[in-house]
Amino acid sequence: MRTIEIRPGVTIAYEDHWFGEPWVTPEAVVMIHGNSESSTAWSQWVPHLSRYYRVVRPDLPGFGASPAPQGYTWTATELAADIGRFADALKLERFHLIGAKYGGSACMRLACDQPGRLISLALFSGAVRGSGGGNAEAIRTKGVRQWAADTMRSRLGSAAPMAQVKWWTDELMGRADPRAAHGASAARIDMELEHELHRITAPTLYVTTEGSGLHSVEEVEKFARKIPNVRIIVMPGDSFHIAAVEPDQCARHALRFMQEISALRARAAE
Questions:
Q1: How far is residue 180's CA from residue 61's CA, in Å, rounded to a whole number?
Q2: Could you say which of 4, 49, 90, 250 has the lowest number of CB atoms within 10 Å?
Q3: Cβ-based neighbours of 177, under 8 Å, separated by 6 or more
Q4: The whole model's pTM is what?
Q5: Residue 90 is part of a domain; what is its CATH number?
Q6: How confident is the model at residue 215 (pLDDT cuts 50, 70, 90)?
Q7: Number of separate domains in the chain
Q8: What range does the domain containing 228 cover?
Q9: 209 near 234, Cβ under 8 Å?
Q10: Residue 9: left if φ>0, alpha if ψ -120 to 50, beta else—which one?
Q11: Inter-CA distances, 157 with 165, 210, 218, 243, Å
Q12: SS3 helix, strand, coil % of the chain, rounded to 5?
């Protein structure tokens, strides 16, 4: 992986792929993973997107190959600012942004705080408000791996094969840095984004499922409609991490959406 320092004390590891014509300068899409994950969570998406877009997948601070900075808070506000700094460091003036779960929350925060940066925004079950201290307490008392094991089935849903549940528990989330995992969970307790969603100016795609344990379809309809230019897709199933359970289908939804926005942007520039 490549690494880059985005501010003193904060270094980001990231993957960067473009498999289109070498003489073309493509638009970039930055993909933001959830709590206790890494850029690896998006691996199955890369073949779908990288023929058409430059696909940049950072490991958020403290996760994957990115070290946990001293004093880091993992709030949506701090993460959003660092995603912006990461884009600055890569000289990405404008870009598409995709986020899942808590990564989606940080993406919404960035879209509110720096609306001019985004060509489009795609969210896969991003939360807009805190959900209590249960996750943080479970990580503190049981450890990251046991917390992951206890919650993985509800996260991935009833259709996820046992091999996937085991891999996500043992090889991905269960290996996360305990301080980062707890910090991200604790930072979410008092999070409140719903009343600022009207500030998001980027065309936005929000994907959820019929039986998501994160937000009901009714709740999604209520808060997502506060985003001025939003498109909502409700997929079948009961996973709130649909980006992981149905990566091919979700990637196709995101690709169609981004290509539509890219085409409109190209026509406007003519």
A1: 8
A2: 4
A3: 62, 63, 68, 144
A4: 0.97
A5: 3.40.50.1820
A6: confident
A7: 1
A8: 2-131+192-269
A9: yes
A10: left
A11: 9, 11, 19, 12
A12: 45, 20, 35
